[in-house]
Design goal:
By secondary structure, this protein is an all-beta fold. Among the domains are: 118 residues, Methylamine Dehydrogenase, Chain H (7 Propeller), CATH 2.130.10.10; 108 residues, Neuraminidase, CATH 2.120.10; 63 residues, no CATH class. Helix content is 0%, strand content 45%. It has a 4-stranded antiparallel sheet, with no helix packed on it. It is globular, with a radius of gyration of 23 Å. The N and C termini lie close together (6 Å).
C-alpha cells in the first residue's frame, strides 16, 4: 500500500532565524518548509521525532523516539547523532543558561557547549520520565513529569507566573513554581499537549480539541479554533513577525491575527502509518491515521473503504459471523454491512470513544476495549453497549482476543505514580480475573494465540511472555536494546511475530529463539499483523507489507 494516509503528525515545531520551519514528526522524521511543498530531511527521515529547538548560536537539536539527540551545527543543513548524550527517547528540549533535554527514562540532561556533549542532571531522579522542561529567567529549571497525581506534558512562563499543561487535568498555575492551582475555566479539553506565551503575554494551549486562549493568566479560557476545528494539537511556535504555527495529527496551521483564525499550511506531506491489519472473507483491511483501506487481491492493490467513517484513526478491525465488519476508532465503534463500502457509528452506551480493541466472543457478542473506561459488550442485532468491568483493575484495554478454549482475554495498562503497569485478564462467569501467574506488572499492548492454545503477550519494553498450559507465564523476550514493541501475531504455521520499531522479530520455536528482519520493509516501524491463510500482512510506518514465506521477507 502506498501513501494513502494523512499528514505525518507534527509533535514539535521550530521557526528558524532564516524564516524556515522545522517540524518534528511521528512519521517522517524532521521536515523543512519550502517555497512549495515541505520536504523530509534525508538524514532523519526514518526516525520518529518529538522535539526540535534552535539554540542562541544557531545550532539545531532534535529529540527522537529511541535514538537520542541529533544535532545540526549549521541551521539544519547537516546532521550528526550526539554520541555523548542520552541514548534513548528524548521528549523535550529547552534553553536557559544551559541547554536541557528531558528523556523518557533517563531523567534530565544538561549541555554547556551548545549541545555537543551532555551530562545527566542527577537529583536522585535519574530514571524519571521528563515530558517537558523550561528554564526561567532567574536560572531555575522546571521539569514536567508523571511522578505526582498529575502528568505534566507542557510548561510555560510568562514572566510573572508559570503554567503546566496536564494530561487530563487541564492547566495549573503557579507564581513560585512550588504551589500550583487549577487554571482551566473555559478550557474545552483537559488534555493539554503544549503551551505557548505570545509577545503580548497571551497564553495558548494546544489540546485534544484544538487551540484555546487566555488573556487573564488562566482565569478564563476561550476557543481559538477558527479554521482548524477540534484538531488535536501537539505543538505551537511563533515567528519573529508575529505569525503563529500549530502542528498536530492533521498537519500544520498558521495564524497572522494572534490565533483569532487559522489557515492550513499546504505541506504536501503524507504518511502511511498502518496501525491495524485484519483479514477475512477474501479481503484485507488496514487501519490508518485517517481512515481505512481495503484490498481484495491479497494486498496487491488498495482502495479507501471509509465512506461514513471519516478521517478518524482506526485502531482495530474485527468481523462478526453474519458478515459485519467492525472498526474501533478515535470516534468509537463503526459498523459496515457491505464489506467496508459504507459505515455507521454504533456508540449507544459507550462512555469512551477511543476504542483500542474489538473482538467477537464465543457467544457471538461484540466486545470493545477502550482507552480509560475498560470493556463494553453488546449482544443481539441492535448494538447497545454495556460496561463489563467487574474484576478488571486496569481500564485501558489495548487488545482483545478469544483463545482456543473460547475464553475472552484482554491486554491492559494503567498509570500509577509514574509507573506504567498492566496485565492480562480473562472473562469467565460475568467477571474478569488475572490470567496465569508470573506476569510482571507492566503494560501489555498485544495478545496472540497459537494453535495449541498458548497465549503470547507483547509487554512494554519489547518484551514477550508466553502463557503455557500450566497457567504460568514464561519470559521469552527477544532481548532487544532500545527497541519499542507494539503488536504481536502468530502465523498459520505457528511462527510468533513481534512488531517493533526495529522491524519484525520472529520466532519459529514458540519464543525459544528469535531473529530480527527488516528485509523488504520500506519502514522499520511495524505495528500489527494479520494472516489470511495464504500470506502474512504487516501494518508498518510505510503502509501494509506482505510476506509469503512466514514472515522471513516482505514486499509491498
Amino acid at each position: 500500500m502506498r501513501a494513502l494516509a494523512g499528514p505525518p503528525k507534527f509533535f514539535g515545531l521550530a521557526v528558524l532565524r532564516s524564516g524556515e520551519i522545522l517540524g518534528a514528526t511521528f512519521a517522517a522524521g524532521v521536515v523543512r518548509s519550502g517555497p512549495g511543498a515541505w520536504s523530509a530531511l534525508p538524514e532523519l527521515s526514518e526516525l520518529s521525532t518529538n522535539a526540535v529547538l534552535q539554540t542562541t548560536s544557531g545550532a539545531v537539536l532534535v529529540g527522537t523516539n529511541g535514538d537520542g539527540l541529533h544535532r545540526s551545527p549549521d541551521g539544519g543543513r547537516s546532521w550528526q547523532r550526539v554520541a555523548a548524550g542520552p541514548a534513548g527517547t528524548v521528549y523535550s528540549l529547552a534553553e536557559g543558561r544551559s541547554l536541557y533535554a528531558g528523556t523518557a527514562d533517563a531523567g534530565l540532561w544538561q549541555s554547556i557547549d551548545d549541545g555537543a556533549n551532555w551530562t545527566p542532571v542527577d537529583r536522585g531522579r535519574s530514571g524519571t520520565c521528563i515530558y517537558a522542561v523550561t528554564a526561567r529567567r532567574d536560572g531555575t529549571v522546571v521539569a514536567g513529569t508523571d511522578l505526582a497525581r498529575v502528568t505534566v506534558h507542557a510548561l510555560a512562563d510568562d514572566g510573572s507566573a508559570m503554567y503546566a499543561g496536564c494530561n487530563g487535568d487541564g492547566v495549573l498555575r503557579s507564581s513560585d513554581g512550588e504551589c500550583w492551582a487549577p487554571a482551566s475555566t473555559g478550557l474545552g479539553d483537559p488534555h493539554v499537549h503544549c503551551l505557548l506565551v505570545t509577545t503580548d503575554r497571551t497564553l495558548l494551549a494546544g489540546t485534544g480539541a484544538g487551540v484555546f486562549r487566555t488573556r487573564d493568566g488562566g482565569a478564563t479560557w476561550s476557543a481559538a479554533n477558527t479554521g482548524m476545528g477540534a484538531s488535536r494539537i501537539f505543538s505551537l511556535a511563533a515567528a519573529s513577525d508575529g505569525s503563529l504555527f500549530a502542528g498536530g495529527y492533521d498537519g500544520v496551521w498558521r495564524s497572522t491575527d494572534g490565533a483569532a483564525s487559522w489557515s492550513p499550511v499546504p505541506t504536501g506531506l503524507t504518511a502511511a502509518h498502518v496501525f491495524a491489519v485484519a483479514a477475512a472473507r477474501g479481503a484485507v483491511y488496514g487501519g490508518t491515521g485517517d481512515g481505512l483501506v481495503r484490498s481484495g487481491d491479497g494486498g496487491r492493490t488498495w482502495v479507501r473503504a471509509d465512506t461514513g467513517l471519516g478521517e478518524r484513526t482506526v485502531y482495530c478491525v474485527a468481523f462478526t459471523s453474519d458478515g459485519r465488519v467492525l472498526a474501533g476508532t478515535s470516534a468509537g465503534c463503526l459498523v459496515s454491512t457491505d464489506t467496508g463500502a459504507t459505515w455507521r457509528a454504533e456508540n449507544d452506551g459507550l462512555t469512551n470513544l477511543d476504542v483500542y480493541g474489538l473482538a467477537v466472543d464465543a457467544d457471538g457478542d461484540m466486545v470493545a476495549g477502550t482507552n480509560g473506561d475498560g470493556v463494553f459488550r453488546s449482544g443481539g442485532d441492535r448494538v447497545r453497549w454495556t460496561p463489563a468491568n467487574d474484576g478488571l483493575s486496569d481500564r485501558t484495554v489495548h487488545d482483545l482476543v478469544v483463545d482456543t478454549a473460547g475464553r475472552l482475554t484482554a491486554a491492559t495498562s494503567n498509570l500509577d505514580g509514574g509507573h506504567k503497569g498492566g496485565g492480562v485478564y480473562r472473562w469467565c462467569d460475568g467477571a474478569w480475573s488475572q490470567a496465569g501467574r508470573g506476569l510482571p506488572d507492566a503494560a501489555v499492548y498485544g495478545l496472540a494465540v497459537d494453535g495449541s492454545g498458548r497465549v503470547f503477550a507483547a509487554v512494554r519494553g519489547a518484551r514477550v511472555f508466553r502463557l503455557d498450559p500450566d497457567d504460568v507465564w514464561h519470559d521469552v523476550t527477544p532481548g532487544l536494546d532500545d527497541a519499542k514493541g507494539y503488536g504481536i501475531g502468530v502465523t498459520k504455521d505457528g511462527s510468533v511475530l513481534l512488531a517493533t520499531s526495529e522491524g519484525v522479530v520472529r520466532s519459529a520455536d514458540q519464543g525459544a529463539t528469535w531473529t530480527t528482519t527488516a528485509a523488504g520493509l520500506a519502514s522499520r516501524t511495524v505495528y500489527a499483523f494479520a494472516d489470511d491463510g495464504t500470506a502474512v500482512y504487516a501494518g508498518t510506518g510505510a503502509g501494509v507489507h506482505r510476506s509469503v514465506d512466514d514472515g522471513l521477507s516482505w514486499e509491498r
